[in-house]
Amino acid sequence: MDTTTTSGGLMKPMSSMAAFGQGSAEAIMKSGQIWTAGCQAIAQAMTVSAQGNFERTMATWQALSHVKSPKEAMDIQTSFARTSVEEAFAETTKLVGATTKLARDAMAPITDRLTHAEEKASGLMS
Fold it and tell me: In principle, which of 58, 85, 106, 116 could form an S-S bond with 34, CB 3.0–4.6 Å?
């Protein structure tokens, strides 16, 4: 048995496995980068939303401090409550959409890599 033929025969599969492993590691790193960037964007959007809520609350308190009748106070509170509920629903809808998109985007490199592995395995089997 020729050792150069045997070692050469082993090098190709080992090189292929190393390249596949490197590609998988790169896919995981890319997924992590997408996840991190997406989480930062979501956190920033939530901060902006919280700041807007705080400003609306402060404006409502200021308006309430100048009311001249109980009816005016009730109107201000009713308006504030309505706006708060509408904003909460809108923000929740945006947050659900953003997190769903983030999960899909972050998984894409890994999903692509799994598809690649499946295609390679199918090629070996046939």
Answer: 106
